[in-house]
Amino acid sequence: MGTMLAQPPIPAFHAIPPVLRNRPTNMAVAPHSFLSATHQWTQSTRFGQCPFGFRNAYTVRVAEQSSSLIGDETPTQIKTELYQALEGINRGIFGVPSAKKADIEALVKQLESQNPTPDPILNLEKMGGCWKLVYSTITILGSKRTKLGLRDFISLGDFLQNINVAEGQAVNVIKFDVRGLNLFNGRLTIEASFKQASKSRVDIKYDNSTITPVQLMNVFRKNYHLLLGIFNPEGWLEITYLDETMRIGRDDKGNIFILERSNENSLQASS
Predict the structure, then answer these.
(1) Which of 18, 3, 21 is nearest to 51 (CA)?
(2) CB 78 within 8 A of CB 107
(3) pTM of this structure
(4) Tens digit of pLDDT for each residue in 109-149?
């Protein structure tokens, strides 16, 4: 969960499609008939094939209208698409196919472009309370996942974050379910402090961490440094989107975090 609080130059010239090169010189050609040399001469559209770069006026108008509709999507509509894209990927913690990841990041950028709180650190009251992670680009893959037992007998529960604005503190809680002869639940709790770095960024300092109960600490003891290294929030976090129910951030390590408002108190003793 980390810092949840926290890619051939196009020719400038235009070419005349081959079919036009033998036209009589006195034949007028509409300016929009010309197509950049970087385009294929045959384009597929939802209306069929457009040979040699030509599109009739109706197709052009429809394309313009479609583009306008996409740009006019509301944050609520984009969030609905985002939640659909996040289905079945377990918050992205064990990796996401590159195409799916690109789709998610495109939706994130759309939301960021319509951020209703451009100066979130000046509106910290909107950030206070409990949040639940729904997506992160932080991943636990390969040998890391094996060493932590996350393939066989340990599963990840909720990732929660409780922000105390008045104290400038954040508590991250990662829950675990351990399967086996003695089934039990536990949690890694990471406490951090934060301070304003700009109108949209906070600097985060790691304070301390604990694992409870002791049985879970015994499971992770050998690889505790690895576990903490994955979830240590220290660094900076840029809040790129904030409304009443969703928060998006980007950290100094290039990670993206998407969180939703939660009614659960991450500091409750029960797991």
Answers:
(1) 18
(2) yes
(3) 0.71
(4) 999 999 999 999 999 999 999 999 999 999 999 999 999 99
